[in-house]
C-alpha cells in the first residue's frame, strides 16, 4: 500500500514538474497581463508632483465614459464596417482566385506565388505600398486614374472614399491568406462527386453550388472566423493611409486604443481594449454558434 | 642563454610599459568605462546628428554612448514608461511641450548648476526665447536646446521677382507683390499663382500640412497666432490664464481655421493627405507650389542635391494681421500696425537628463557637446539633422549655409526671416501642461473634421474645447492653470 501511495505521489510530482514550465509561461504571458490590464482599466492614472505615476481605483468609470463617448461608437462602427465588408470581399475574391488557381492554366505556379506576395510582406510595408499605389496624383495608377477621371476625387476628404481606400488596402493584403487556405481545401476535395455530376450532365455552376461550395463550407467558415477575429485588430492600413482621418472616419477601435496609449492614458487604453475584446467575443461566439454550426450541418 | 633572458626581459618591460601607457592614456579620459543611453526620434532627423556626434564624444571622453531611436508616435509614452520603471535611458531628446508631464512627475534633473559649469556650451548665445521659455519650467532649466523651432512662410522668390507677375498681381489686387505680410495677402498670392504654368508645369498656390496624425494642429496655431496674441508671449493663445478655459473656439481660431480651409482651393487635390514630409518634398523637390508653411527645414533642404528650389527660395516671418481678436472685449480690434505673432510650434528638439541617471554629469556633458557652437553651427545647416538655427552664432555667418550648399541670397533671406521671428517679443509658446499630448490628440481630430468638411470650423473647435475642458477637469483645473501660468512666466493663482 505504502509503495503504491509513494509511486502515486512521485507520479503526481513528475506530472506537475512537466506541467509547471507551461503553467508559468501561460501565467506570465497571458493570465497576468490579462488581470493586470483589467485592473488598470479600472483605475485613473495621473502624475503626482515628484511622485511618478499614481493609480486611483475608479471602478467602471472608464467604461461608462467610453460608452457615452461618440468617438468610441464611431470607431466601433468603422471597425465593424471594415470587418464585414472587408472580410466578405476577401472571401469572395479569395474563393474566386483559389478556384482559378486549381485550373490547369499556363503559368499556374507563377500566379500562385504572385498572389501570395502581399501576405508575405510586413503589414506596415504593405500599407506604405498601398499609400503609393493609391496616390492618384503621382502614384503608378495616376495615368489611369486621370484618364478615367477619378484622380481628382476627394479621396482623403470624403469619409466614404477614405474608408473605401482602407478596405481596398486591407483586401489586397489579406485576400492571399484566404486564397491559400481555400486552395488547400479545394485540392483536398474528393473527385467522385464531380465524376457523378458529370455523368448526370450537371453544369459547372451547378457543380459549384451543389458540390464545391457545400463541401468547402467547413474550411470556408473556418477561414472567415479567423479573418473576422483578425480584422478587428486592423491598425496598420488606416494609420498609414489616412491617419484615421478625415476626422475619425477611418479610425478603428484598435487605432483609437493606440492613439490613446500614445497620450499615456493607459487606463482608458486598457478599457478600450477590453470593450473590443467583449465585442469580438460576442461576434465570434454568435458566428461560431449560429452561422458556422448551421453551415457545417448543411455540409453534412 | 643570458642574452635570451635579457631580450625576454626587455620585451616584457616594453610590453608592460605599453600596457601601462595605454591604460594611463585611457585613464586620462574623463568617462572611460562609463556608458550612457539617450533615446530620441528617428526621423531620420534628430537621430542622425546624435548618432554622428556619439562617436566623437566617445573619442574625446572615453564614454560609451548608446543612441536608442524610436518613432515619433511612440517617443512620449516610451520615455514616460522608462523613466517610471526601468530608468534605462540616461537622457531623452524630445519636445519641450512634454516638460509638463515629465517635470511634474519628478523625472528630470534641473540643469542650472551643470550649465553654470559648462562655459563651452555658451548658454547666453542661445536666443532668449529658447533659453528662458522653451528650456525652462517653473523657474528651473531642464533642457539643452538643439533646435530652433518655429514656423515660417516660404515662397518662390523667382516668381515674386518676375516683372510680368508683379504687374499682373498689382493690376488684379491693387498692391505690390512682395513677401506676404498678412494672412489675407497670403491668400491672395496663393490664389494668384494657383494654376500658373511655371517651367512647363502647372503649379498650385500653396502646400500646407493638413493630414491627420501629423502636424496640422501646429499649422492652425501658426495661422491663429496673430489673431489671438498681441500682448507678448505671456498672453498665450490656448487657455485663459485666469481660469484655464480653452480659447480654441474663440473667434480668432474660428477665423484662422475658416481661412485655412479656404486655402484648399489653391492646393493639390490630395492636400488632406499632406504632412510636413509631403510639403517639404512637394515644395523643394517637385516645385509644385508657390507658397509653403513649415519649420526652418525647407531652408536647409533647399541646399540638397535634388532640390529644385535652390536659388529661388524666399523666406519670411509668419504673416500677421491688421486686426486681432480681443478676447476680453469679445470683438475684433484694429491693430495700430500689423500684428505679428510667430509660433514656436513644438518648441524645438532639446535634451533633458533623467533625474535617476547614474551618470548625470557624463550625460549632461554629451548633451552639452551636441549643443555647443562647434557642433550646432554645422548641424543647423544640414537638412537631414532636422535642427534649425537658435543661437546668435547661427546668424553671424551665412557663409556656413553657403558652404553647406545653400544659395547665398536664399541663405541671407532665410536667416533674416528666422532672425525677425526670434527677435519678436510676441512669440507664441506652445502649451506645456501635463497631458499636452491628450490636448493635442483632441485638436488633431477636430482640425481634421473641419478641414474635411465633416463639421463647420466653429462646430469642430467647439468640440475640441469641450474635449479640452474634460481633460482639464480630469487632471485638475487649478493645477493645470498654475502650470500653464508658470510656463508663460506668470505667477501662480491660489
Polypeptide structure, described:
The complex is a heterodimer of chains A (300) and B (494). Chain A is mainly α and 300 residues long. Chain A has 2 domains: 2-57, no CATH class; 61-299, Orthogonal Bundle (MetI-like fold). Chain A is 75% helix and 4% strand. Chain A contains 12 helices and 2 strands, in the order H-E-E-H-H-H-H-H-H-H-H-H-H-H. In chain A, strands 1-2 form a two-stranded antiparallel ribbon. In chain A, helix 3 (70-102) runs parallel beside helix 7. Chain A is flat. The termini of chain A are far apart. The relative contact order of chain A is 0.12. The mean pLDDT of chain A is 90. Chain B is α/β, with parallel strands linked by helices and 494 residues long. Chain B has 3 domains: 1-26; 35-147 and 348-396, Periplasmic binding protein-like II (D-Maltodextrin-Binding Protein, domain 2); 152-341 and 428-487, D-Maltodextrin-Binding Protein, domain 2. Helices cover 47% and strands 14% of the residues of chain B. Chain B has helices at 2-27, 47-61, 72-84, 99-104, 112-116, 128-134, 157-161, 163-173, 183-193, 216-228, 251-263, 276-284, 297-301, 360-371, 373-379, 392-396, 398-403, 408-423, 436-451, 457-475, 477-487; strands at residues 35-41, 64-70, 91-94, 136-137, 140-141, 144-145, 152-156, 197-198, 201-202, 204-207, 289-294, 313-317, 321-326, 331-339, 343-344, 350-353, 428-429. In chain B, the strands form 6 sheets. Chain B has a 5-stranded mixed beta sheet with strand order 2-1-3-16-6, sandwiched between helices. In chain B, strands 10-11-7-12 form a 4-stranded mixed beta sheet. In chain B, a hairpin with a 2-residue loop joins strand 8 and strand 9. In chain B, helix 10 packs across helix 11 and helix 19 (436-451) packs antiparallel against helix 20. The longest helix of chain B has 26 residues, at 2-27. Chain B starts with a helix and ends in a 7-residue tail after the last helix. The A-B interface holds A 44, 46-53, 71, 135-137, 151-152, 154-159, 239, 242-249, 259-265 and B 73-74, 76-77, 80, 84, 101, 104-107, 211-214, 268-270, 272-273, 434-435, 437-438, 440-441, 445, 448-449, 451-455, 474-475.
